[in-house]
Amino acid sequence: MEYRPELEIAADPDVYPPSEDSLLLIGAFKVRHGERVLEIGCGSGVVSLHCALNGAQVVCGDINPKAVALTKKNAAAVGVRLDVRETDLFSAVPERFDTIVFNLPYLPVAEEGALARAWSGGPDGLGPLPALMVQAPDHLLPHGRVVIVVSSLMDPVRTQAVLTGRPVRTLAELPLFFEKLRVLEIGF
Prior knowledge:
There is one protein chain. The protein is built from five helices and seven strands. It is an alpha/beta fold.
């Protein structure tokens, strides 16, 4: 998908704003018209909005109620229909999807608070990745995929162990000053 900078995305100081990783994710993968997409950890909704504007049917959610409210506000302002839910991974999402997208909290820090949950992946940086990989098959349609953002700061041995046994393809990379971000597509 192509990032649309003309979209007016409102902000909230308690919600993760669109950043380099968000833009990398948007540009890294494509959706088909009618594709069923779930975005976990939607934050401001910028990724979900781009998926919907490219013809996908989008359900999105976040553990942060302020992110849910902000995504609804941004969808209304853009005139896009999104099904937005407050959810911890799949807790409020029983359906199945073609694609699950998650800009994971990947920094290896153990910070607390609503906003810190958007970047704090715990001591190893994996955060909810292990749970995502275990639960995703129950929420994917046949031949579905998971698209995630990972960082070179994550524990490489544990990250590889979590992804072992699945076909993984790198869709995009972004070297930054202190880390390298990658968007991975994981087949199921």
